[in-house]
């Protein structure tokens, strides 16, 4: 699930690339999602930030909120 969230984050970062201001928060959240793929911790704050600030954040945020277990 987190790999799918990472792929959607990349797509949404590319789509937000036409406007430079959203890239200020899209790029760090995409990198944080990449780091989150390898650990087994919950990332509730990252999922909520995805929902609020990313263009396709509803999908990737929900995928981040779903537990991996």
How does this model look, in words?
Keywords: Membrane, Transmembrane, Transmembrane helix. With 69 residues, the chain is an all-alpha fold. It has one domain (2-65). The protein has helices at residues 2-15, 23-36, 44-53, 57-65. The longest helix has 14 residues, at 2-15. The chain is elongated, with a radius of gyration of 11 Å. 30% of the residues are buried. The mean pLDDT is 85.
In short:
The chain is mostly helical. It has 4 helices and no strands. Helices cover 68% and strands 0% of the residues.
Topology diagram in text:
Blueprint: H1 2-15, H2 23-36, H3 44-53, H4 57-65
Largest β-sheet summary: none
Query: Which secondary-structure class do the elements indicate?
Result: mainly alpha
Overall geometric form:
elongated
Low-pLDDT segments:
none
H/E element order = HHHH
Quick check: average pLDDT?
85
- The gyration radius over C-alpha positions equals 11 Å
Helical fraction equals 55-70%
Count of individual domains: 1
Proportion of strand residues: under 5%
Task: Report how far the terminal alpha carbons are from each other.
Answer: 11 Å
With helices defined by DSSP (H or I, 4 residues minimum), what is the helix count? 4
β-strand number: 0
Keywords: Membrane, Transmembrane, Transmembrane helix
Transmembrane segments: 6-32, 44-66
